[in-house]
Structures are given as structure tokens and as C-alpha cells.
Amino acid sequence: MPVILKEKCPAHANICKAIIACPNHAVSYVEDDDEPLGGRIEIDHAKCTGCGTCAIECCGMAIIME
Length: 66
Prior knowledge:
The structure is a single chain. This protein is of the alpha+beta class. The protein is built from two helices and four strands. The chain has helices spanning 17-21, 53-57; strands at residues 2-4, 27-31, 39-43, 63-65. The strands form two sheets. Strands 1-4 form a two-stranded antiparallel sheet. A two-stranded antiparallel ribbon has the order 2-3.
């Protein structure tokens, strides 16, 4: 299953290729004022099939498969 490495993730909805690439719409941007950039990328593991597309497409190499 994919895991987000927060320290590597730029967390911008408009540049996150993993959001668009996920065939199951399991990757999303969540606004959160407690985050340094005002939001974070999340993976809904209930929707995720573990295909790895998000890890391949992640522009910051911030998603790994475990």
C-alpha cells in the first residue's frame, strides 16, 4: 500500500500528479490550516487497490509502496 513521506511532499493540489493519475480516486488534497502549506495530500486506503500509480506519478517522489 502507498505511504506518503510528509517531509518530501510539496502538498499542492494544483501540481500533485498522483491525484489525477489515481484510477480509483484514492488520492486527494485536504485543506488543513495546521499544515505548513495549508493542506496535505491523503490516500484513502478504502479506495486504494495498491496499483502503485500514485508512487510512479508523484513529482516529489514522496509516495512509496510498502
